[in-house]
Amino acid sequence: MSKARVPWKAVLGGSVGNLVEWYDWFVYSSFAVYFAASFFPEGNDTAKLLNTAAIFAVGFFMRPLGGWLLGRYADRKGRKAALTLTVTLMSASALLIAIAPTYEAVGYFGVLVLVVARLLQGLSVGGEYAASATYLTEATPRGRRGFASSFQYVSMTAGQLVGLGLQIVLQNTMTQEALNSYGWRIPFVVGAAAAAVVFYLRRSLLETEAYDEEEREVKQADRGTIAQLLTHKREALLVIALTMGGTVAYYTYTTYLTKYLSNTAGLPKETATLVSFCALFVFMCLQPAAGALSDRIGRRPLLITFGIGSMVGTVPLMTALGGVGGFGGALVLSLAGLLIVTGYTSINAVVKAELFPTNVRALGVALPYAIANALFGGTAEYVALWFKDNGIESGFFWYVSGLAAVSLVVYLTMRETRDAALSRAEQATEASLPSRV
């Protein structure tokens, strides 16, 4: 089993869309400081940033809708079709932002273009996760699924690193005036072009065997419906519960970390950014190793390790990070947090896909995950800043620990999914093997 070949073309095609998705997600928030003034009238700069942040938040609200619509589409039309559609939406959203007219040219029409782009981006993110997770899991033989599906977070993290790297390059090669005028459009042009390349790659992918079987034997009306999902209510609730602790911990040690190191620890922004870049790079490299480990020892041991580590370690780690004095200490502590989070991120996609039957697998992964991510991951930074604003910043650390404790209970009581048969062919092979005593 462990010697099964990894279908690298499927892994590349299934995961690389996440790179573009998270690149787009990152560059919108990081370049907002440059383009905010282009879409609103002269006035309070903070108000302009708040307006662009509100438009950014629209994407999070759209993710559950995208999970439902595109998860249903993936179960009815195929994993390949869904992957192709999500990357088309990605390219369209990035291109819209790149060409959006300014307030000076057309008034608030430019804001409308931004909102439409974020709606498309939210739909795309909501569907991309499930389509990618389902495709990577179904296209890979048992014994290598954990390893292959871990590339989902490799590509997601790579997207953030590429966006951060491009930001550093542009900041060091363009003047502030140029960035404010037209330079901020460059990363969105790059995002649209990258999505077009991914579209080309995905057109040549093969459909998974599990879906082909289902398409031949189960009528479309019985695939990807809410009614079918409700017959697996326990698994759907399981996805929400096992996600809540992982997603809030992930956002804490990734997107929120730079702000925390700058605002609370008092590190220079350049140092905080460098810490995040280096920590994320190491984190990205850890994912395949942890995924491969889960193929050997099972998914639950890694999830349980994450649950215990996050529940017990978040408060002391974040407290120590708040008082860190330089690059070295901040990097070591950040890596400790991300090492704990790896127990969740490296395998969360494959675990969810292994819980559901083929006819509702994409929807079963998409909708509960999107709900949990919108409620807990998308709000993590807001909750953290709320605690800080009220003078009880440590309350956020306990909040993260509490959610991890809830997820830990789920990890301890859920079934092991590593050996799940995802297709009829796998079930037949399993039935033909001698019974284990």
Could you explain the architecture of this structure?
- With 437 residues, the protein is mainly α.
- It has helices at 8-39, 45-77, 79-99, 103-106, 109-138, 145-149, 151-173, 176-181, 186-203, 209-217, 226-230, 233-253, 257-263, 269-297, 299-322, 327-345, 348-355, 361-377, 380-389, 394-413, 424-432.
- Helix 2 packs antiparallel against helix 18 (361-377).
- The two termini are 19 Å apart.
Short overview:
By secondary structure, this protein is an all-alpha fold. The chain has helices at 8-39, 45-77, 79-99, 103-106, 109-138, 145-149, 151-173, 176-181, 186-203, 209-217, 226-230, 233-253, 257-263, 269-297, 299-322, 327-345, 348-355, 361-377, 380-389, 394-413, 424-432.
Tell me the layout of helices and strands.
Layout: H1 8-39, H2 45-77, H3 79-99, H4 103-106, H5 109-138, H6 145-149, H7 151-173, H8 176-181, H9 186-203, H10 209-217, H11 226-230, H12 233-253, H13 257-263, H14 269-297, H15 299-322, H16 327-345, H17 348-355, H18 361-377, H19 380-389, H20 394-413, H21 424-432
Helix pairs in contact: 1-2, 1-3, 1-5, 1-7, 1-9, 2-3, 2-5, 2-18, 3-5, 3-9, 5-17, 5-18, 7-14, 12-16, 12-18, 12-20, 13-14, 14-15, 14-16, 15-16, 15-20, 17-18, 19-20
